[in-house]
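Summary for the steering committee. One of the milestones for this cycle was to obtain a three-dimensional model of the protein with carboxymethyl coenzyme *A bound, which we needed before selecting residues for the alanine scan. The sequence and ligand used are listed below.
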Amino acid sequence: MTDTLSITDSRTGGQYDIPISDGTINTMDLRQIKVLDDDFGMMGYDPAFKNTASCQSRITFIDGDKGILRYRGYPIEQLAEKSSYLEVAYLLIHGELPTRAQSEEWVHGITHHTMLHENTKKFMDGFHHDAHPMGMLVSTVAALSTFYPDSKAIQDEDARRLQMYRLIGKMPSIAAYAYRRRMGFPYVYPDNELSYSGSFLNMLFKMTELKYKPNPVLEKALDVLFILHADHEQNCSTSVMRGIGSSQADPFVATAGAAAALYGPLHGGANEQVLRMLNEIGSKDKVPDFIQRVKAGDVLLMGFGHRVYKNYDPRAKIIKEIAEQVFEVTGRNELLDIALELERIALEDDYFVDRKLYPNVDFYSGIIYQAMGFPTDAFTMLFAIPRASGWIAQWQEMILDPEQKIARPRQVYLGHDKRDFVPEDRRGEDG
Ligand code: CMC
């Protein structure tokens, strides 16, 4: 017997049994609920999608109350400890961890698509010297669409795979170009003998040395940070990726849109804002005053709170541990003391306890990035690089899902009823 939700419409006395499947109802089943035969029918109203599932997915599982995050069933803690970013990217996209042969082919494919078209340099040079790197990244990812018109063949499995290699391979190169443009340094090509994160560090920080040797601790830390940021189910940017992709646009422009969504300070841009906030607070003794301002509603405690997590973000826990390893190489970032004090006070304070506000992934990551030598406005790119694999995994799942169609939400129209056009000389007469 199917489980059902029984609804009585008090307007008509009508009774309806709506099937329940996987703990959800299909809101299209509400459309039969009408007062008059020619009514449109009942809809759900859910601004910001707080309680609406837009897809069925098998990629990432989050239990926000318990603070659990799993990619394809594997706990994030185990992946952070035992896997590598490229292996995790494979897992997200293919559903299983790769065999050795699959892994070699995957890593080879990505490593051999890290170079950018030489025109990209001219493109980069066109940006103003102080352009925000995320603006440069968003635009350059979109420009990949113009270099690779074959990316429009979204139904072709081989073409999709090639775009995945290109996208995952080129994200670090684009981010590094944006950084070097910002700094006024010459662009550096990828080094295929290095790991994914090692080659990225090379493209960022190589100066006059013939061969750049990444510090193994920092290289590993960056790889783990990439794992932690790789996917997070249907967040704002992923929904944009799926939304743009649903019109059958190519994956490069869809990724550019997703990266634009990530750029915002309430999403991936929060890591940059956390650093600005910590600098503004300045010292540990100013933390109580700052918390008062947060409680008064004057400012947000950036890096705290989450739509889904109502418990400690499991990624933030791991990042706190990585911070200690990084600081052994770079020296301790003084801002950590302010962050720890903010966390200590916030976790004891009723305002935060009642609202279940805990540190999220962005709270400690910026402190690490700063210690590693990244300028503050480069932080969000470090989120975008690994999230590309999650976006592309979600995009492919959508393309292959026969239930998915072009995304097109409904609205509740509350505007004027029909009225006649008013000539300019009579406008404003009724106030
Ligand atoms: N500081 C102070 N108060 C907060 C915060 C915060 N960071 N976050 C939520 N609240 C309060 C909020 O004012 C509201 O209070 P009240 O019930 O009195 O009106 C209550 O907590 C519930 O918050 P909400 O705004 O309804 O929650 P939301 O699910 O719409 O927003 C959020 C989630 C992440 C946008 C929000 O917590 C926030 O703005 N955090 C700061 C920005 C941030 O760190 N973003 C990164 C999120 S994690 C990584 C990512 O997604 O990229």
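Key point for the committee: The radius of gyration is 24 Å.
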